[in-house]
Design goal:
Blueprint: H1 6-21, H2 26-37, H3 44-55, H4 64-77
């Protein structure tokens, strides 16, 4: 089976998300999760990239919508 390269797209998109206004919002995180789930599963590389992206979110940037998305992603990646 061919290895998914979605994690590369996620990495590239995250750079765009952070560079447009310096932070990641809930909508952008949802878009990254959608890429990870596109093939029906979140593999180890995709989970690693999602963890790395979420680690860059600063506490003062987390609003209610972002907290919900962070919780959703963490549940899906088993963290």
């Amino acid at each position: 089976m061919k290895e998914s390269r979605d994690y590369l797209e996620m990495s590239f998109r995250s750079i765009e998300c952070f560079s447009n206004d310096g932070k990641l919002d809930a909508k952008e995180l949802r878009q990254l999760l959608t890429i990870a789930e596109r093939d029906g599963q979140i593999d180890d590389n995709e989970a690693r990239v999602l963890r790395n992206i979420m680690s860059r979110v600063q506490p003062h940037e987390i609003d209610a919508d972002m907290q919900v998305m962070l919780d959703v992603v963490l549940k899906k990646i088993g963290a």
